[in-house]
Design a protein that fits this description.
Strand content: 5-15%
Order of helices and strands: EHEHHEEHHEHEHEHHHH
Helix content: 40-55%
Number of strands: 7
Length: about 260
């Protein structure tokens, strides 16, 4: 059965898109069929996989607006088992456009239902905001992964998101849950990092992934080369950390299914 996971955090700069790209790549590397949906108008997930916007017309925008067939808008990436439903500049106007549409909270869910059987995992990279695009992602998803930067204000940003998820559970998607909180940009040289980690683990307990994503220059360099960290430098600490997180994700989902 297909698992749909949204990567969400309304705070920018927490490594959300980098995480979505590298988890998608990691899952594809272990022979899972993966679709990455770039729901962020910035389109960085596509860029990080080597796509230039001007080189293709495919976009998730036309799909959620009902103007295009989802199957015609999925791109094949250079990574075996990984496909991309890309973003476009038009997506920046989707928040306003959706206001006038029927069933506006479920446009993405309904579109993904058409092709979901072809994938083991569908991952959605959400924009850094809690608008209709993120709401569509949360209504389409089974679960959420929250990337969280290890900093002093880490917990402040996540409170609003957890409140939003509870509202989504109550009004639209009762089955959605937080699959895990992922600590990113982890720098053990600073005491602040360990303090932030302790606060997050104390608050969320076992829901926090055991693996943390280190602050790693190879992760930062990879997008400029249009490659995930695993394909840019497989042996780097960042790439290996994402592989470990992907393993944790599979184990958690398998445990839920028992």
């Amino acid at each position: 059965m297909t698992k749909i996971i949204a990567f969400a955090n309304q705070k920018g700069g927490v490594g959300k898109t980098t995480t979505a790209i590298n988890i998608a790549t990691s899952l594809a590397t272990i022979k899972k069929r993966v679709l990455l949906v770039d729901l962020d108008p910035q389109g960085n997930a596509g860029t990080g996989l080597g796509f230039v916007r001007a080189s293709h017309q495919q976009s998730v925008y036309g799909v959620i607006m009902g103007m295009a067939n989802i199957s015609d808008n999925i791109l094949t990436t250079a990574i075996p088992n990984l496909h991309l439903l890309p973003s476009s500049l038009a997506l920046s106007g989707a928040e306003v456009d959706l206001l006038a549409m029927d069933n506006r909270e479920y446009r993405l869910r309904d579109a993904l239902a058409i092709i979901s059987e072809y994938y083991d995992y569908i991952l959605i990279d959400c924009p850094p905001a809690l608008g209709y695009l993120t709401l569509n992602a949360l209504n389409a998803a089974d679960s959420v992964i929250v990337p969280l930067q290890c900093e002093f204000f880490a917990l402040e940003g996540i409170q609003q998101l957890t409140t939003t998820i509870k509202e989504v559970q109550k009004k639209w998607n009762p089955n959605i849950k937080i699959l895990g909180v992922l600590l990113t940009m982890y720098d053990k040289r600073y005491s602040q990092t360990k303090e932030a980690e302790d606060d997050v683990r104390k608050t969320f307990g076992d829901i926090v992934f055991t693996t943390v994503i280190p602050r790693n220059v190879r992760i930062s360099e990879a997008p400029s080369h249009g490659k995930p960290a695993l394909f840019y430098d497989f042996k780097s600490p960042g790439a290996q950390a994402y592989l470990c997180v992907a393993t944790e994700i599979v184990q958690r989902i398998e445990k839920e299914g028992k």
